[in-house]
Fold this sequence. Notes:
alpha/beta; 12 helices; binds manganese (II) ion
Amino acid sequence: xxxxxxxxxxxxxxxxxxxxxxxxxxxxxxxxxxxxxxxxxxxxxxxxxxxxxxxxxxxxxxxxxxxxxxxxxxxxxxxxxxxxxxxxxxxxxxxxxxxxxxxxxxxxxxxxxxxxxxxxxxxxxxxxxxxxxxxxxxxxxxxxxxxxxxxxxxxxxxxxxxxxxxxxxxxxxxxxxxxxxxxxxxxxxxxxxxxxxxxxxxxxxxxxxxxxxxxxxxxxxxxxxxxxxxxxxxxxxxxxxxxxxxxxxxxxxxxxxxxxxxxxxxxxxxxxxxxxxxxxxxxxxxxxxxxxxxxxxxxxxxxxxxxxxxxxxxxxxxxxxxxxxxxxxx
Length: 330
Ligand SMILES: [Mn+2]
């Protein structure tokens, strides 16, 4: 039994609350955080929503979106007023919170559903059976006696659409469909929200997709693996878009694909290089352990890692480990 009551008590006792989510905020982290922000403000709390990196503008339609504040360096984190409680939404470990981890605070509530969550909070609401962090948050909202109104339902609906890939991934359970039906009963325009989340590309974004497609490779040794590799030069040529979105879905969309990856090379502020890796698999195949072997995490069928190094050395390593994982799993 997860400590929802303990978390609710900490929140009732708090005057100030900071909500946050992981680096590269997504539909689940943002939707979960905004649903909590709306509910806690109604309880009279002083609430801020700090995010550790820039947010894709496509989420601008969500209620109270303008409240998101980017806090992406330590100096900025240190000048934030103290909060009695911080709620981390959808982050598997404290490193994923970037600079926001360092804000002055009392209790840390870690609300998440990733299998690899490190339980870094003082109170850990980590439900690995939760289909989205929004589902986990809905148990906390219930404990707080919050009414799920139109705005909160819009935010929660966004979390499930994002994390189930519009009810396509293996976490699309009967329970989450019933949970979603309850949100639709509140009167949200589900179809409109889906359009807002899906039809978001600028011409520049599509130009990037074109470059990504040119770099799509089906593995010669193991044709059930396919991926995209974008080095810094390719990304510069494409014009780094606001949101790379679901790049990994391109190799995944191939008939017969079981394991897909997307690798993007990026120079850090401190001059060092990293490769951001996204990986996906179809059940029963699992790639969570591969992401973990590179210091990352996530779910069994959807995981990622930020790997120090340049593309020419990292890409073959990732491919080798994915081949090994697939071979072990049959
Ligand atoms: Mn999530």
